[in-house]
Amino acid sequence: MNDAYTVYIVIAAAAVVTYSLRLGGLLLAGRLPKTGRFRKFMDALPGTILLSLIVPTAMAAGFWGWVATACTALCSLRTGNVFLSMIVGVTIVALSRI
User: Fold this and answer.
1) 47: confidence class by pLDDT, cuts 50, 70, 90
2) Domain residue limits, the chain
3) Which residues of 54-77 are buried (b: 16+ CB within 10 A; e: fewer)?
4) What are phi and psi of 31, to 5 degrees?
5) Percent with pLDDT over 90 in the chain
């Protein structure tokens, strides 16, 4: 088997696995409880995933990473505009690197 076919097979396998997981999630979502502790857990999950992505990045960026994170969060809370908040955070980091 040559390398080109191997690449195509790996890409196809990754696509099948990815879409199988998405389909499985959709099918499973209808069977999950809609009330109680599980519902509270599921409501909190997006925030915890977001924090697990943001905190290590801010720690690695140092002081200016934390400043950008705080300003982004503050802008998002005040304006409700996610795009503007991202621009604020990226601008702070970019200016700190000059």
Assistant:
1) confident
2) 1-31, 34-98
3) eeeebeebeeebebbbeebeebbe
4) -100, -5
5) 53
3-state SS, one letter per residue, for the chain: CCHHHHHHHHHHHHHHHHHHHHHHHHHHHCCCCCCHHHHHHHHHHHHHHHHHHHHHHHHHHCHHHHHHHHHHHHHHHHHCCHHHHHHHHHHHHHHHCC
Residue bearing tokens 């000059």: 98
pLDDT tens digits, 77-97: 999 999 999 999 999 999 999
